[in-house]
Amino acid sequence: GCGAMFEISVIAPEFKGLNTVKQHRLINE
């Protein structure tokens, strides 16, 4: 939903140390 992108934007800083593939795996889970 519309809240998903907001949540991603909030947790994005925690992903700075991860590569794109890991980011997508975490988001999809």
Give the end-to-end Cα distance, rounded to a whole number of Å.
15 Å
Q: What's the average pLDDT?
A: 68
Instruction: Give Rg in angstroms.
Output: 9 Å
Helix content: 55-70%
| Helical stretch tally | 2
Q: State the domain count.
A: 1
Helix/sheet category: mainly alpha
Q: What fraction of the residues are assigned to beta strands by DSSP?
A: under 5%
User: Main β-sheet: number of strands, strand sense, barrel status?
Assistant: none
Order of helices and strands: HH
Strand tally is 0
What best-fitting shape do the alpha-carbon axes yield?
Answer: flat
| Unreliable stretches covering 5 or more consecutive residues | none
What is the subunit arrangement here? single chain
Family: Belongs to the BolA/IbaG family.
InterPro entries: BolA-like_sf (IPR036065), Mt_Fe-S_assembly_factor (IPR052275)
